[in-house]
Amino acid sequence: MIKNSWALGLRLVLMLFTLYTAFVSKTAAQATAVESGRKPVVVELFTSEGCSTCPPADALLQKLEEQQPVAGAEIVALEEHVDYWDHDGWSDPYDSPAWTQRQMLYKELFRTNEVYTPQMVVDGQTQFVGSDERKALLAIDQAARRAQPGVTLTPGEMDAKGSQRFSVSVEKLIGNTPGDVVLVWLAVTESGLQSSVTRGENAGRVLHHSATLRSLHKIGVASTGAGPVSFTGTPEVKIESRWNREKLRAIVFIQEKKSGKILGGASAKIP
Asked: What is this structure's pTM?
C-alpha cells in the first residue's frame, strides 16, 4: 500500500512538472521584444553562395543576431538567398526565385540601378552593402528609435500533417503612411545551415548561414481603423521534414505595400 502511494505521488509530481514546463515555454514564446524593452528591427540580407563577397555579410548578419549589439533593438534577421548567381557554376541550395523577386521590389522602391549581393535592408527603409557593419549598426539604431505598434506571435500546435499553427495579433497602427496598405507577413527561418561549395566563386569553402529564410507568406492586411487592434489571425505554415525543427524560428512583420516600410514585428522559436 505504501509502495503504491509513493508511485502515485511520483507520477503526480512528474505530471505537475510537465505542465509547469509547458506553461513556462508558452509564456516565453508569447513574450515580445517590446515587452523586454527592445523594439524589433527586421534586418534582411540578400545573399548567395555563388557570390565571393557574400560570406563576410553572412557572418555580419549572424553576429548581429547572436550578439544583439544595439541597445533598444531586437534584431530580427532574415537571410534571403537569391537565385541569379546559379548560372556561375554553383546552384545555391537555399535560394528561391521568390526571394529574388522580393529584392527586385526593393530595387524599385530604392530606385537603385540594379540588384546586387550582398545587400542589407533594415526595416524596409535603408539599404547598403551587406558587409558594412558601421552602416548596419547606425541604421538599426535609427530604426529602433521609431514608434511602432505592439505585435504578438504565439506558436500553437502542429497537426498530424506537419502544419504549424500560430496566433498573431497587431495593435493599432502607429507611424503608417496614410493611403498605404499594411501587409502582414509570416516567415520561418532556419539557423545552423552550411554548405561545402565545390564550384563557382566560393569553390573549396565551407559556408555557414544563420536565419536562412525557408518560407514567407502574406497572411492578411492590417486595418487602419480606430480600433485598439488592427489585425488578428491564426495562420498555418507547413513545416517541411527536411528542416531542422530545433533550429526554426517564426517571424511576423507588418510592411507597407507601396513604401516598403516595416512598421513592427515579433519572433518566437517554434517549440
From this structure: 0.86
